[in-house]
Amino acid sequence: MVLELRNAKKTFGEGNTLVEAMKETNFLVERGELVAVIGPSGSGKSTFLTVAGALQTPSEGEVIINGKELSQLNEKQRSKIRLQEIGFILQASNLVPFLTVDQQLELLNKVKKDNMTKDEQRKLYEDLGITKLRKNYPSDLSGGERQRVAIAKALFSKPAILLADEPTASLDSDRAFEVMELLRNETKSNQTATIVVTHDIRLIQYVDKVYKMTDGVLKLESSAEMALDSTE
Amino acid sequence: MFLAWSEIKKNKLRFLLITSILLLVSFLVFFLSGLANGLASMNREAIDSWKVDAVLLTEESDKSLYESALDRKIADELDAKETAVISQMGAIANNGDTKQNVMLFGIDREEFIKPEVSEGDPTFYVQNGVVASDVLKDEGFKIGDTLELSSTDTKLTIVGFTEKARFNASPILYMKLNDMQKIKYGDAYTMNKDLVNAIVIRDKDWATLSLPDNTEIIETETFIESLPGYTEQNLTLTYMIYFLFVISAAIVAIFLYVLTVQKISMFGLMKAQGISSAYLARSVIAQTFILALIGVVLAFGLTLLAGSFLPNGVPIMFDIPTMIIYGVVLIVVAILGAVISVWTIIRIDPLEAIGG
């Protein structure tokens, strides 16, 4: 198990203004598994993502990443966990505008050890079809290319968990499917635990499990039996 | 440094503007420091060249050389290592072509403040011969010139020139004490020939000397600071320089803050990915250091270049160690200006960047 939420709950405010953005949630994802979390806007998907991504701690319950329980950690410690264990692919391109594709990855080498080797990086570029874009700045790239570079950046640090927030939002259908195919391949080949948060149900054909978030309640949808088996 | 330098390389124009402003402020600081130094030197270079520790004046003169009158015999009674007497008067010297405000200094040729002559005869052998400040050469004065003085019929002859001979912004004419006293006192010469304005002293232990009544001994620096207008002029220029330090810090702070605010979402995303605030803060500091260093170094060169084209009449004198200190201060205050940006980065919540 790589990421587990045990009875995790996130509330904001107190008394009459108390809002339960994420109700009591149990969630589990293993290495090599691609999971989708779907749901309409305002259903609590983003809250789930930020709790699972160690950007905030749950109000109750536990979040365990690679055996480390996050609830008691401060922002500095959680920041380290994010750097070491999690790769983010965000809706807004998470590329630094003044760095070339190569430099985006070089930046990670400056702040973290044990990233991909040069050979692994070359193969990653080939897999993602961005070898020719190495010297380009984000402003020189199309939406699809930027998203592929963002995936490269997220995978370069060899994260245990890949969190993708609406990774296909700015792409047309062909590009969106292409990105999902890439995520699936990388999840399997790198044995990453990948969680895709999306409202696009067409993408669920690529995933192993689908969770649906409705009004803060996260519920396993299509592959319920499989999910139950893996937790036992 | 990687992030800082990469951004500078990508956004050259943006950072060129910031560096240009830092360059101009630094240029102004260096130029003003040269001007302050030059103006100070006009007032004090003669005194500095004597290398004296203290000056003896009358108590009632209130540290003014012009108002002090002492018996020169006091110098013999003082138990100081070395002493020299000075009799002084101001005058307008006219060589027939040019009139120039000068300071006549009557000195004893046997005493240590006798000027080193850079050009001409060092002996003052001619009666009423003077060794003049070499700045008079720029005004058209030359060796052999006969000088008429505004306050007397006596004529002086320039027998030599000496460097570093200005006092209170006037060029000095050094002459024999006796010749000077005759000009100064005229018919009253016999009665006043032993009256001098000051006795300058070379003795580290000057403070322990026993003094005659109605006299006071003051440290050389205090004497210089008491010269008319000297302290006021220095303070004015020094305060201008200090204000420029504050202004440069404010400029850097404003520019960097605007740049930082524009990049808040980017910093937020980087923090969400686990890049620490400390790394991002170091990057902003490094960027400021690079920009300030480039601005200061270019301003340093530009100031020296501009200085070499200025006419001799501009009282500017660059003191390299002082300029280096000011340069370092400029870089430090620029970095202090980056503190607001650093604080902004520390306060960025990665959750907001990710839309949580």
Structural classification of chain A: alpha/beta
Strand order of the largest sheet of chain A: 6-7-8-3-9-10
- The number of helical elements of chain A comes to 7
Number of strands of chain B: 13
Order of helices and strands of chain B: HHEEHEEEEHEEEEHHEEEHHHHHHH
Q: What's the helix-strand series of chain A? A: EEEHEEHEHHHEHEEEH
Rg of chain A, Cα atoms, Å: 17 Å
- State the domain count of chain B: 2
| Mean pLDDT reading of chain A | 86
Shape of chain B: elongated
Strand numbers in spatial order across the main sheet of chain B: 3-4-10-6-8-7
Number of strands of chain A: 10
CATH uppermost class of chain A: Alpha Beta
- Low-confidence stretches of chain A at least 5 residues in length (pLDDT < 50)? 224-232
Q: Approximately what portion of the residues of chain B adopt beta-strand conformation?
A: 15-25%
Average pLDDT confidence of chain B is 91
First-residue to last-residue Cα separation of chain A: 11 Å
Number of domains of chain A: 1
CATH-defined superfamily of chain A:
P-loop containing nucleotide triphosphate hydrolases
What is the approximate shape of chain A? globular
**DSSP helix fraction of chain B:** 40-55%
Could you list some keywords that capture this structure?
heterodimer, A: 232 residues, alpha/beta, 4-stranded antiparallel β-sheet, 35% helix, globular, disordered C terminus, B: alpha+beta, 2 domains, 6-stranded mixed β-barrel, two-stranded antiparallel sheet, 51% helix
Detail the topology: elements first, then pairings.
The complex is a heterodimer of chains A (232) and B (356).
Chain A: E1 3-12, E2 19-29, E3 34-38, H1 45-52, E4 60-65, E5 68-69, H2 75-85, E6 86-89, H3 101-111, H4 118-128, H5 143-156, E7 161-165, H6 173-190, E8 193-198, E9 209-214, E10 217-220, H7 224-231
Parallel strand pairs in A: 3-8, 3-9, 6-7, 7-8
Antiparallel strand pairs in A: 1-2, 1-4, 4-5, 9-10
Chain B: H1 2-10, H2 12-50, E1 54-58, E2 70-71, H3 73-77, E3 82-94, E4 99-107, E5 117-120, E6 129-133, H4 135-138, E7 146-149, E8 155-162, E9 166-167, E10 170-176, H5 177-185, H6 189-192, E11 195-196, E12 198-202, E13 215-219, H7 220-225, H8 230-262, H9 264-272, H10 277-309, H11 320-337, H12 339-347, H13 350-354
